[in-house]
Amino acid sequence: AADGSADVSPRGEAPGFAAVIDDRHVAIPDRPGNNRLDSMTNILENPTVALIFLIPGVRETLRINGTAEIRDDDALRDRFVVNGRPPATVIVVRVQEAFLHCAKALMRSRLWDPETRIDRGALPPAVDMFHDHAGVAEKTPGLETDAVMDGTLKRELW
Prior knowledge:
five-stranded antiparallel β-sheet, globular
């Protein structure tokens, strides 16, 4: 942001969702999310960004540091059409550094090991966590369970 604080926003979809534009630029489509504009506002205030790519089953990560711009030109957006829908905008990052990170942290965490996954039922439902985080006492009608919420998320994915 303008004050130098950082924002972390997960992005991702099917393999190949991020595109190499040329030797110095990568592009990431901006898909519907939680309707917050933190990342976009921060890019406008301070274009310095860092990306980390996690690929299921791959222990090493790719890290890119650079500067970002938000683009909405049709030719670029059309490269990222999914289910007939282009993204509203595309984040284009001018790469200043790109390097692989050592695999030790992911190996120690056993992140990709199915045996280390916790039973989702061991945690409160996500809808309860969202309400607690937002300080909302009453449940949102229609989102009482994780199953209902999962269905809503899948329908609104693109």
